[in-house]
Structure formats: structure tokens, C-alpha cells
Specification:
By secondary structure, the chain is of the alpha/beta class. It is built from 13 helices and 13 strands. The protein has helices spanning 4-19, 40-55, 74-87, 97-106, 145-155, 171-186, 202-209, 222-226, 228-238, 248-251, 262-277, 299-304, 311-316, and strands at 29-35, 63-69, 91-95, 112-117, 136-140, 161-166, 190-195, 215-218, 242-244, 256-259, 288-289, 294-298, 319-321. Strands 7-6-8-9-10-12-13 form a seven-stranded mixed β-sheet, sandwiched between helices.
Length: 322
């Protein structure tokens, strides 16, 4: 039987353990993270990953963390991938499709967790949505396009011509375009495309759509999101409504977006990385999706782009920006 003093010490140790915010981590782990470019959504993913690692106890001297961005350059993404693979970290977190493709092409052994990838199957990161049996797993930000186009109809009931600015070199954007070509006719609408292979092309691509479309829809294309202000200028100057799938773009001038919380998306990817750090094989973890969507509205952007938001939309919004 324990003495009163030993009981008190045991309870005290339990109290300290319960009060400690981080789990005990036995050894230092290394995580390398890379993104194709810096913009609010991808930065939020990075921050969410780091938060999940810290919550699991990988903080201070228990985590060797490095992060690099390719500044929108796929060749640089390849260089970063090869550098990270040479470093042999315990996990590489690859944020956005081009960076994920570069990392996966560079290693068959270092564990890779992708994030902010719309279609990892089309991007050839994994064969299907089952556990891959390889060194790759991750979290997709794929959105149901029928719900995205329903939002277009809710904002602009009479819209029939949907414009889309996108980078034809980004796999996730090509997938979205191909699906919209099939989906929109079923909804009584048509797609008008404008290519923007570089961020500097976004403004001119958007301007080429003026007069040809009723609305411009943007997915999570990294070129477009990086240069969203140039698209907003076209929308404001010509009263061409902008609807996005990236909720951060609403703060920057889109009228509406039905999308995910990219910080929480990063947390989800970070938890996958933690499972690998704690001994699970990446190939045994099935790729995941981030399912919960929130509606964001920008009332001042709507007014500037000639749109009146219905009370039904306003009442259903998670956040309204004035």
C-alpha cells in the first residue's frame, strides 16, 4: 500500500502531466515543408501544419523545422525538393500541387505528406484514394464543383456565361476546367476560359473575358490567387463579378466564396505528419479530404461590382466583410 506521501506525489505528477500542453516526445524529429508560392491560403496551411506538430509535442529542441517557397517557379520547386530529399528529414510536407509533384518525383523513400492539392490522383501523386503502399499520403482541398456553381447561381441567378482564369500548367486547375466543361452545360451555363501561365498574365487574362462573361470564377489556382489584386482591379473597373473558391480571396475583393479553412486544412495535414513521426507508414494512411465548407461574403466588393446580395445569402454566411 502506498503511503500518504507517495500517493500525494503520484497525484501531483498526474496533475502536472495533465496541465502540460504538449505530449512528451522522446526524440528530435525533422520536418521540411515547401510551398510553390506564398499567398494567404498556402501560408495558412503552413501555419496549421506547424501548429499540429507543436500540439503533438514537436516543439523547441524536439523539432528541426525548415521551410522554403519556390516563389511560383516550378524549376525552383524541383531544386527545393531535391535539396530536402538530400537532407533526409523524417517527413516532407509539400504544399500545393506543383510542389507536391516535385517532391514525389524526387524520392521513393522519404515520407511525403501533400496538402492543398485538389486532385492527387490526376496529379499522379497516388493511384487512388486508398492507402498508397508507397511513401506518399496527404490531404486534398478538393471542392464539389456543383456546389461552387450553385453559389454562382445564388449570387447571380441570371448568369449563364462563367469565365475562368487559370494556369494551364497547373494540374489541379486543368482538372477543374475539364470538369466545368462537362458540368456547366448540365446547369444551363457555358465556360469561357482565359489562360494565365504566369502571375503577370492574370490581369490581362481577366480583361480578355470582359463583355464575354457574366461572372469570373476562380479556383485555388496558385498563379491566380497570388495575383488576385490584379483580377480584382478588372472586376472593379468593369463591374465584372468575381466569385472564388478560396475564402481568403473574399477579403481581397471577391464577392463570395464557399470554401475551406486553410489553417484547419494545414492542421489536418500536420496530424497526418505526426502519425508518421510516431511510427506509422505513410503508405498505410489513406489520402484524406477536408470536408467542411463555409460561405464568406464581401458586401463592399459586391456593391463595387454591381451586385446586390440577397438576404438569404447574407443570413447563411459564416463571415461578412464590409
Amino acid at each position: 500500500m502506498k503511503s500518504p506521501i507517495s500517493k500525494w506525489l503520484s497525484l501531483g505528477a498526474l496533475t502536472v502531466a495533465l496541465a502540460t500542453p504538449f505530449a512528451a516526445v522522446a526524440e528530435t524529429k525533422s520536418v521540411a515543408a515547401t510551398a510553390i508560392v506564398e499567398h494567404p491560403a498556402l501560408d495558412s496551411v503552413r501555419d496549421g501544419v506547424r501548429a499540429a506538430l507543436e500540439e503533438a509535442g514537436y516543439t523547441g529542441d524536439k523539432l528541426k523545422w525548415q521551410y522554403q517557397t519556390a516563389q511560383g517557379n516550378t524549376a525552383t520547386a524541383g531544386q527545393i525538393a531535391r535539396k530536402f530529399v538530400g537532407d533526409r528529414p523524417d517527413v516532407i510536407v509539400a504544399i500545393a500541387t506543383p510542389s507536391a509533384q516535385a517532391v514525389v518525383a524526387s524520392t521513393k523513400s522519404v515520407p511525403v505528406v501533400f496538402a492543398a492539392v485538389t486532385d492527387p490522383v490526376a496529379a499522379q501523386l497516388v493511384r487512388n484514394w486508398e492507402p498508397s503502399g508507397t511513401n506518399v499520403t496527404g490531404v486534398s482541398d478538393e471542392l464539389e464543383l456543383d456546389r461552387q456553381m450553385e453559389l454562382v447561381k445564388r449570387v447571380l441567378p441570371d448568369a449563364t456565361r462563367v469565365g475562368m482564369v487559370y494556369n494551364p500548367g497547373e494540374a489541379n486547375s486543368v482538372v477543374v476546367v475539364e470538369r466545368l466543361r462537362e458540368l456547366l452545360p448540365e446547369m444551363g451555363m457555358t465556360l469561357v476560359e482565359a489562360a494565365a501561365p504566369r502571375t503577370v498574365d492574370v490581369g490581362s487574362a481577366a480583361r480578355s473575358l470582359v463583355g464575354k462573361v457574366d461572372v469570373i470564377y476562380t479556383n485555388t489556382d496558385n498563379n491566380v490567387v497570388s495575383a488576385y489584386e490584379s483580377l480584382v482591379k478588372v472586376g472593379m473597373d468593369t463591374k465584372t463579378p468575381l466569385i472564388a473558391s478560396d475564402t481568403d480571396s473574399v477579403k481581397r475583393g471577391a464577392i463570395a466564396a464557399l470554401g475551406i479553412d486553410y489553417y484547419q486544412h494545414g492542421v489536418q495535414a500536420g496530424k497526418v505528419a505526426v502519425r508518421i513521426l510516431q511510427g506509422e507508414a505513410p503508405g498505410s494512411i489513406a489520402p484524406q479530404k477536408t470536408g467542411e465548407l463555409s460561405l464568406y461574403l464581401n458586401r463592399s466588393a459586391a456593391a463595387a461590382q454591381g451586385v446586390t446580395l440577397s438576404q438569404e445569402l447574407l443570413d447563411s454566411a459564416a463571415e461578412i466583410i464590409d
